[in-house]
Amino acid sequence: MKAARITAYGTADVLRIDEVERPAPGAREVLVSVEASSVNGHDVIVRAGELKIVSGRRFPLGVGLDFAGVVVETGAEVEGLRAGDRVWGTVHPRERHTTAGAAEYVVVPVDRLAPAPAGVSPTDAASLVVAGATALQALRDTAHLASGERVLVRGAAGGVGTAAVQLAHAMGGHVTTLARDRHADTLTALGADRVLDYGSTTSDEIGPFDVIVDTVGTELHCYRSRLAKGGRMVTVGLSAPALAAIAASTVYGPRRIRTFSANPDTAALRDLATHVTSGALRPVVADVYPLTDIAAAHRAFERGGVVGKQVVEVAAS
User: Fold this and answer.
1) Is residue 269 part of a domain?
2) Fewer CB within 10 Å, N- or C-terminus of the chain?
């Protein structure tokens, strides 16, 4: 089978398409024929070498945190899934993989996938797995957003940002976004009540907010100061400076900056699917690239400037 893999830490040029042996599932594992994967921040920072403590220094490494596809084979102890079922899921973000979601086949534990939402194409489904699960966990499980609260989504045009705008709107939040001015119409259509240009709006000009969801990871202390009494801030834009800001914010107690590692299991993926089928969350895809051009997808992710996700089509549906 063909698999995209990381040959060394560095730029997108280190990505390579290899011919490798097709894996076989163990007792509680599932073999999935992958139809699409997407580019996530996790994929890029692993490739750049920012998670060496987890991914190690042995190459090649698999790439592609999420996937959508079709069950090919199930292990002896797997129940509830059979060949031909459409599924979506993730590989484990804190484990070393020699092949991952950006490959023609992937083997994952049964508790890391769930039935894909009906009526959604593989490329659309792949765009929502990590982005949607991250946004849902940020708003509902970490910030505990309540109806009527004022929400700021910073970095609203990205995958997590567009999902957060939609879910915050569906949960009854009054949604303000920070993004490029040219994305205002799209974000308004997704549910934003107010769209601010991040290039001309400073943190001290806005607020207060009950909930802030940050996907950027810079100037966190400035935005934390825009929280209302009882406000909560969550960031998923992790870097060394962001981690330092998170640690320093603990002196503020409940108004500290929170973070988490999105790692959805079957229950979370089933829950996410209900938001898709209800219409509360819909895919926002910027571009679709063939597996052979995954390096271009990574470059586009790092370049930014578009709305939505870069999706990698592995097999035509």
Assistant:
1) no
2) C
